[in-house]
TrEMBL record, chain A:
Transmembrane segments: 6-21, 28-49, 75-95
Membrane topology: Multi-pass membrane protein
Pfam family, one: Oxidored_q2
Family the UniProt entry places it in: Belongs to the CPA3 antiporters (TC 2.A.63) subunit C family.
Name under which the protein is recorded: Multisubunit sodium/proton antiporter, MrpC subunit
Keywords in alphabetical order: Cell membrane, Membrane, Transmembrane, Transmembrane helix
Compartments where found: Cell membrane
Automatic annotation (TrEMBL), chain B:
TM region positions: 6-25, 32-53, 73-96, 108-127, 133-152, 164-184, 204-228, 240-258, 270-292, 299-318, 324-348, 369-390, 405-431, 452-473
Segments forming domain NADH:quinone oxidoreductase/Mrp antiporter transmembrane: 129-418
GO molecular function annotation: NADH dehydrogenase (ubiquinone) activity
Pfam annotation, one family: Proton_antipo_M
GO biological process: ATP synthesis coupled electron transport
Superkingdom as given in the UniProt entry: Bacteria
Species for this entry: Salegentibacter echinorum
Keywords, ordered alphabetically: Cell membrane, Membrane, Transmembrane, Transmembrane helix
Principal cellular location given in the protein's record: membrane
Name this protein carries in UniProt: Multisubunit sodium/proton antiporter, MrpD subunit
Length: 117, 507
């Protein structure tokens, strides 16, 4: 399971970076989404994948009695998913506006900011 | 109970941002609330700063979850100094925004978002939890995305695409680094991490994590090979936005670099060498970039990059004198860069252009304003006794002590290039004969707007120039402050004890 996940994460990162490096704005968004998902899965993987009970200590004891799943990575992923969701939706709107105003889908033609003025 | 005082600056910004949302369409009210609120924030920050200065580092465990399990807020001298600088720059830019940003932009929630940005900055400085730092960084960048696109001009949107992509990439690399760090140590509290990272046996993986942090924060703070988004975007939004970006957004990256590399990844000679080399290249490439630009806002953008190098040299040298110099430079730079972008905005509103070729005759037409602008421009170069001079003494002393002559050469040469750039700017904009610029119809020239607006545009520049003069002439005080910050940063045990052993629960 770990190996499979590791490979998937590697592919997601590689594909994400590749897509960001393309010239098309739409591919930029796809790259951003892939990269965000890769990072979330990485937190999940590195939080150790264990089959365990929820981390709740029974009333009659003061320490954990059985194997438990670490809840922290899940909280982290939840936060990270929400944040990257917000960023991705912003990116889609930004790209739509930019496409409308600049009238091109090609990042190489977006060079008004480099002009000497 | 008293430890809650460190959260007041943060909560005040949050309150302001929410309050401003209720006045969405009432722009006049927003202007007043933002200015008054920022002034109160400045006072509160000064009070908290004085409290920390007298009582030492204070911590707060959110929700009374003891460290290292809960989220820690910690205000040591470094953090609270940055909060204070944020509130000074925030107040100045708030007043400047009220005067200079057109109401068409203000209608789309400029002020609420502006205060969310300041909230993110304050939070990033005060947090003691690495994942919480990520969340504050996200608040900062999301607010900055909105601020940079508000108005939706062509150049703005193009700049925003570049700004967005690289900052998003930086966040993802930062998140990846946190994931690996959590996998290695099982902790997120920075003080706890400092102990646990030192005990990790797989040093190669620690090194890689450190590099990931370096790249993530390096993009945000515009270090040498990672800075290309900055000159492509910082000149596009209104100058009030550029001012707060130029003053604080790259500096929060520098803050994070200093924090992480003095607390979590310490005593790493390899990394310090990398930092030094990057800093030297940053100094050179930024200054050379500034040399060939024609737009004065682009010149200032490149100078931001160049001067990041000074702070990173201080960190890379990793001696107490060097870090004190770097921190002093950071303090000086936040005030100067904020001020310079406001100056560029003022020049733009007076002449209708930011191109050096089109400008001229400023000194003949506006002698008093020119004298005012003289202060930040020549403090930037570091002509004694103005403020840029003093941190460079510390840095140069430190390079001599560690026999790092390349850094010494870079510091001096970059200062010289800055001098050339500013001298060229002064000659072109201020001394050259006035050029014929075609009058722009419907442009809100400085002499056409109401008196109150003019005051709102000039007062923040005077205010920040006075702060700069204080940093220059009261250098002894700032030097004491940065020496104390440096000694706290070098002795990270103090920070760790403050978080982990001070486990008394706050009511």
């Amino acid at each position: 399971m770990e190996v499979l996940l590791a490979i998937i994460i590697g592919i997601l990162y590689a594909a994400g970076v590749y897509m960001i490096l393309r010239r098309s704005l739409v591919k930029l968004i796809i790259g951003i989404i892939l990269l965000g998902n890769g990072a979330n899965l990485l937190i999940f993987l590195l939080g150790r994948i264990t089959e365990g009970a929820p981390p709740i200590i029974p009333e009659d004891s003061s320490v954990f009695t059985e194997a438990y799943a670490d809840p922290v990575p899940q909280a982290l992923i939840l936060t990270a998913i929400v944040i990257s969701f917000g960023l991705q939706s912003f990116a889609i709107i930004l790209v739509k506006r930019a496409h409308k105003v600049v009238k091109t889908d090609d990042l190489d033609e977006m060079n008004a900011t480099d002009e000497d003025s | 109970m008293t430890q809650q005082i460190i959260l007041y600056p943060l909560l005040l910004q949050l309150l302001l941002a929410i309050l401003l949302m209720f006045f969405w369409n009432k722009i006049k009210a927003q202007r007043v609330i933002s200015m008054v609120g920022s002034a109160i924030h400045l006072v509160v920050s000064i009070v908290v700063f004085a409290y920390i200065w007298n009582n030492g580092t204070q911590t707060l465990q959110a929700g009374s979850w003891e460290a290292p399990f809960g989220i820690t807020f910690i205000a040591d001298t470094f953090a609270i100094t940055m909060v204070l600088l944020t509130s000074i720059a925030g107040f100045a830019v708030s007043v400047f925004s009220a005067g200079s940003v057109i109401s068409g932009r203000l209608k789309f929630g400029y002020f609420p978002i502006y205060h969310f940005l300041l909230l993110g900055l304050t939070g990033a400085f005060l947090t003691g939890d690495i994942f919480n730092l990520y969340v504050w960084f996200e608040i900062i960048i999301i607010s900055s995305f909105v601020l940079i696109t508000i108005g939706g001009e062509k150049a703005q949107l193009e700049g925003a695409v570049k700004y967005f992509t690289l900052n998003f990439l930086a966040s993802m690399i930062f998140l990846t680094a946190i994931a690996v760090l959590y996998g290695l140590t099982g902790s997120l509290n920075m003080a706890d991490l400092a102990n646990k990272v030192a005990a990790v046996e797989n040093r190669a993986l620690v090194e890689i994590t450190a590099i990931l942090f370096l790249i993530g924060f390096g993009i945000k703070s515009a270090l040498f090979p990672l800075y290309y988004w900055l000159p492509a975007s910082y000149h596009t939004p209104p100058s009030a936005v550029s001012a707060i970006f130029g003053g604080l957004l790259t500096k929060v990256g520098v803050y994070a670099l200093i924090r992480v590399f003095t607390l979590i990844f310490v005593e790493d000679v390899f990394l310090d060498q990398i930092l030094l080399v990057l800093a030297i290249f940053t100094l050179f490439s930024g200054a050379l970039g500034a040399l060939v630009q024609n737009n004065i806002r682009k010149i200032f953008s490149y100078l931001i990059i160049s001067h990041i190098g000074y702070m990173i040299i201080g960190l890379g040298m990793y001696t107490e004198v060097a870090i004190a110099g770097g921190v002093f430079y950071l303090i000086h730079d936040i005030m100067i860069k904020t001020n310079l972008f406001m100056v560029s905005g003022l020049i733009y509103r007076i002449k209708g252009s930011n191109s050096m070729r089109a400008l001229g005759g400023f000194y003949a037409n506006y002698p008093k304003l020119s004298l005012l602008i003289f202060i930040p421009l020549f403090s930037l170069i570091g002509i004694p006794p103005l403020s840029g001079f003093w941190p460079k003494i510390s840095l140069i002393t430190a390079t001599f002590n560690s026999e790092s002559y390349w850094s010494l050469a870079a510091i001096i040469f970059a200062s010289f290039l800055t001098l050339v750039v500013i001298a060229k700017l002064w000659a072109e904009v201020f001394w050259k004969d006035a050029q014929e610029i075609p009058e722009r119809p419907r442009f809100r020239y400085f002499h056409k707007v109401k008196n109150i607006k003019r005051v709102e545009m000039v007062v923040p520049i005077i205010f920040l120039s006075l702060v700069t003069l204080y940093i220059g002439f009261g250098a002894e005080h700032v030097q004491t402050l940065s020496a104390r910050i440096a000694s706290e940063l070098m002795d990270s045990q103090q920070y760790i004890d403050a978080v982990l052993n001070n486990s008394q629960i706050t009511e």
